[in-house]
Amino acid sequence: MVEKPLAVNLTHAKKMKSLSEKHNIHLITNYETTWYPTNHEAYSLVSKGVVGDVRKIVVHDGHKGPKKLGINSEFLDWLLDPVQNGDGAITDFGCYGANLSTWLTGGKKPLTVTAITQQLQAENNPKVDDEATIILTYDSLQTIIQASWNWPIGRKDMEIYGLTGSVTAINRHSLQVRKAEGYDNYEEENFTLAERLPPLDDPFSMFGAVIRGALTLPKNDLSSLENNMIVMEILDAAVRSAKTGKTVALK
Fold this sequence. Notes:
Number of strands: 11
Largest sheet: 9 strands, mixed
Number of domains: 1
CATH topology: Dihydrodipicolinate Reductase, domain 2
Strand content: 25-35%
Oligomer: single chain
Helix content: 25-40%
Structural class: alpha+beta
Radius of gyration: 18 Å
Distance between the termini: 28 Å
């Protein structure tokens, strides 16, 4: 089990996949947002058609920046190294939205990836980006991923917009559902959700269950290798798009 994302680049990810398959090893990626009950309830509501066919997903992730968090120098040096971290905020926090979007679309690859990055704290992040927006296009929807080391507060939230309403995972426990009425009116419900049941409530319980054979991850699970190989393709395309200023088509 590795901390998100699966690897620092697509080449490493492909090698890891090859070795895990050759030696029959579970290879799992851990994201904090995988354990949010709100994300799973949002997935369930969307799957049931509560807000109609999905047309847009917006994911916000990040914080004020690693240097401002006062983390130890060893971890900070790693985060701010474009080789060791695979780039800056675009990979550090862009991976969350790529993971969630892949999950919500049933394991589909986006048709195109477009990314814009900026360096708004050059004094703190001299070698990497700290602001990134990634746009993924699919046949019938669009995902916007806003990954930032410039948020004044830490955030990991997601908005899903369907034809008849929206679902917002505000944080780990707070969920909002809005049903459209007329031009700009809506009916709103807010929920506070309890933690998920073991072993789906934290990474180590889940990892242990997988090792013992008590749990088999679906191919499109948030932690699965299949999902996270697509995440790595998205991140690879996003970095290339940001550097070239061009949209990248995925095969």
